[in-house]
Design a protein that fits this description.
By secondary structure, the protein is mainly alpha-helical. It has one domain. The protein is 79% helix and 0% strand. The chain contains nine helices and no strands. Helix 3 crosses helix 4.
């Protein structure tokens, strides 16, 4: 186990890290993409509040933790081997450098190269030459926004494909109701049961979860 030492710096650093943990979890894990896809699927079925948000976000957190497990385990192992005792500021800096290596590999693997190139090229305009000259594609300041933007793009691409069959059901139901002269009947009243039947028939939740997990293989 890591020893934080007897000084107060270790406690302060740990509290600081825990304060930013929610932001870190959202920006450098699969949470953003998984949560967006699940929300799109829920909206596509027409069930605005079912499953409830707590269930959707809970599933997204569990799947994100499942995907991130090897990265976290590798980071912890590297820190434990190189800096077993975290007593000084230098120890924490070295631990951060060692522990971030697996994370950088994960972000680089799943970030779109075009997004990475854009953020790297933009450093001269936004950061200025003083800081841009030291920027590299492996910097977290470049990788994190590239990864997050890539994840959101992929989430909407997946969501678009998942939306299509449900839109087809809406169109068919609306056309049939108009043909029968039942224009006063809300199409959603008829289409939602058919959407649920289709979703259950194709094992929708299993297929979506499996598909999302395999995108990180």
């Amino acid at each position: 186990m890591l020893d934080l030492g007897e000084n107060s710096f270790g406690v302060i650093a740990l509290v600081f890290f825990m304060a930013f943990l929610p932001i870190i979890a959202v920006t450098v894990t699969a949470f953003a993409k998984i949560a967006v896809v699940l929300m799109i699927v829920r909206n596509a079925t027409g069930l605005q509040n079912l499953p409830p948000n707590v269930v959707m976000y809970g599933l997204a957190i569990i799947l994100s933790a499942y995907i991130a497990f090897p990265v976290v385990a590798d980071s912890f192992e590297r820190v434990q081997q190189t800096v077993p005792e975290l007593e000084t500021a230098q120890d924490w800096i070295k631990a951060g450098q060692e522990g971030s290596a697996p994370l950088k590999e994960f972000l680089k693997k799943h970030a779109d190269e075009k997004q990475t190139a854009f953020f790297l090229a933009s450093t001269r305009k936004i950061w200025g030459d003083k800081y841009a000259q030291d920027a590299t594609p492996e910097d977290l300041a470049i990788l994190v926004p590239s990864f997050l933007l890539s994840e959101l793009t992929k989430a909407f691409e997946i969501g678009f494909l998942l939306f299509l069959p449900f839109i087809a059901i809406d169109i068919i139901v609306t056309t049939v109701l108009i043909a029968l002269g039942m224009m006063m009947v809300p199409p959603s009243t008829i289409s939602i049961p058919f959407k649920l039947m289709l979703f259950v028939f194709v094992e929708g939740w299993s297929k979506i979860v499996q598909g999302l997990l395999l995108t990180y293989a």
